[in-house]
């Protein structure tokens, strides 16, 4: 299941700030795939492995 981590639609955020936020989350949660949803302008995460119970 995908989870919204942070809204990045604030025009004051730079690309480097957004990438830094993503990297910190990846370091803290190595079991998650972290990516940007460009349409929704949010940072998203989902488990790297999907269990068969989902």
Provide an overview of this structure.
With 54 residues, the chain is α+β, with helices and mostly antiparallel strands. 26% of the residues lie in helices and 31% in strands. It has one helix at residues 15-28; strands spanning 3-7, 32-37, 42-47. It is flat and about 40 Å long. The mean pLDDT is 91.
Radius of gyration: 12 Å
Helix content: 25-40%
Subunit organisation of the chains: single chain
**Beta-strand percentage?**
25-35%
Put simply, the count of helices is 1
> Can you summarize the main beta sheet?
3 strands, antiparallel
If strands are numbered along the chain, what order do they take across the biggest sheet? Answer: 1-3-2
Low-confidence stretches: none
Shape type: flat
Strand tally is: 3
Category by helix and strand content: alpha+beta
Write the layout of secondary structure elements.
Elements: E1 3-7, H1 15-28, E2 32-37, E3 42-47
Antiparallel strand pairs: 1-3, 2-3
Question: What is the compact description of this entry?
Answer:
By secondary structure, the chain is α+β, with helices and mostly antiparallel strands. Helix content is 26%, strand content 31%. A hairpin with a 4-residue loop joins strand 2 and strand 3.
Summarize this structure as a short list of keywords or feature phrases.
3 strands; 26% helix; alpha+beta; 54 residues
């Amino acid at each position: 299941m995908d989870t919204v981590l942070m809204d990045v639609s604030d025009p004051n955020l730079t690309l480097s700030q957004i990438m830094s936020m993503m990297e910190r989350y990846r370091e803290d949660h190595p079991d998650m795939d972290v990516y940007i949803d460009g349409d929704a302008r949010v940072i998203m995460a989902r488990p790297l492995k999907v269990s068969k119970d989902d």
